[in-house]
Design a protein that fits this description.
Layout (H helix, E strand, L loop, with lengths): L1 E4 L10 E4 H15 L4 H10 L1 H16 L3 H22 L1 E2 L5 E2 L4 E2 L5 E3 L4 E2 L4 E2 L4 E3 L11 E2 L4 E2 L4 E3 L3 E2 L4 E2 L4 E2 L8 E2 L16 H4 L2
Parallel strand pairs: 3-6, 4-7, 5-8, 6-9, 7-10, 8-11, 9-12, 10-13, 11-14, 12-15, 14-16
Antiparallel strand pairs: 1-2
Helix pairs in contact: 1-2, 1-3, 3-4
Length: 208
């Protein structure tokens, strides 16, 4: 069964047809390659990984969208239950309407939100506590398009109708709301800012 997918680069020229099995295998192998031990141990730990489980449900939902109506009717409840469990247990919101290339790696779970319609390229790494979301109003409203081989560090926020190039590294807690070119490394700068010297408690409370 074929699905349609386009990365940031491909979307400018063509859509590439790939097999669902091949895409899912590429996703799983990203996690498998990071693990240590024998083949059996690595396989078991890989399938136990919340990120792998989330990706399996995500790819299943995409596959289901391309099936005949009767099969959809029979399997939709299963998808909704599994997707709900992934959100509740692992805190990963990965809608099947997002377009994500092969080799997606989710290293840690918790606080991961990806908006519907987001486009992400091949071999991208997504960390915990990140948001890739919708922003803007009217014609400026939209979601990000992210290229191939992009790393998004913990706490990063990427939102709006923007393009993030390929081979980009987004640092921890960075807030991205403008286009980022290929090969860029983006960090949160200056890191923090003192906005007040009023402290945590008032002077009266401090005397108690």
């Amino acid at each position: 069964m074929l699905i349609r997918w386009s990365s940031y680069a491909d979307s400018r020229n063509r859509l590439e047809a790939v097999t669902m099995g091949g895409v899912l295998r590429a996703d799983i192998m990203r996690t498998y390659e990071y693990l240590q031990g024998g083949r059996l141990r690595r396989t078991v730990n890989c399938l136990r990984s919340p990120g792998v489980q989330a990706v399996i449900v995500f790819r299943f939902g995409q596959w289901l969208d391309s099936q005949p109506s009767l099969l959809k009717l029979l399997l939709q409840p299963i998808y909704f239950v599994l997707n709900g469990l992934v959100q509740i247990m692992w805190g990963i919101e990965l809608p099947r309407s997002a377009m994500i290339g092969p080799g997606l790696y989710i290293g840690h779970f918790g606080g991961i939100t990806i908006a519907p319609g987001v486009i992400i390229g091949r071999n991208c790494d997504i960390s915990q506590h990140i948001t890739i979301g919708l922003s803007g109003q009217g014609e400026k409203a939209g979601v990000p398009t992210i290229g191939d081989n992009v790393y998004i560090a913990p706490g990063a926020q990427v939102f709006g109708k923007i393009s993030v190039g390929s081979n980009v590294k987004i640092g921890a807690n960075a807030v991205i709301y403008k286009d980022i070119p290929d090969n860029a490394i983006v960090v949160l700068d200056p890191g923090f800012k003192i906005v007040s010297y009023k402290g945590n408690r008032s002077p009266e409370e401090g005397k108690i």
